[in-house]
Specification:
The protein is mainly alpha-helical. The longest helix has 28 residues. The termini are far apart.
Length: 68
C-alpha cells in the first residue's frame, strides 16, 4: 500500500470534490442552455396596480381566517 503524508490526502479529496461539483453544475448549466427556457412567455412582474389588501382578492373561495 502506498503511503502519503497525512497532510496531502485531505487536500486531494477536497480538490476532487470541488472538481466534481464544477463538472456537475457545468453539465447542468450546459444542458439547460441547450434545452431552452421552460416557459418561453413567462416574464417578471412589472408592478401593476396594487390590490385593496383584502386577503382573498382575485382568489374566490380562498379566504384567510375561514378555518373551522
Amino acid at each position: 500500500m502506498e503511503t502519503t503524508e497525512p497532510d496531502t490526502r485531505p487536500h486531494r479529496v477536497l480538490t476532487g470534490f470541488v472538481l466534481l461539483l464544477v463538472l456537475v453544475f457545468g453539465g447542468a448549466f450546459a444542458l439547460g442552455r441547450a434545452v431552452g427556457p421552460v416557459a418561453p412567455g413567462l416574464r417578471p412582474a412589472t408592478g401593476g396596480t396594487p390590490g385593496t389588501g383584502h386577503p382573498g382578492d382575485g382568489m374566490p373561495g380562498h379566504v384567510m381566517g375561514a378555518a373551522r
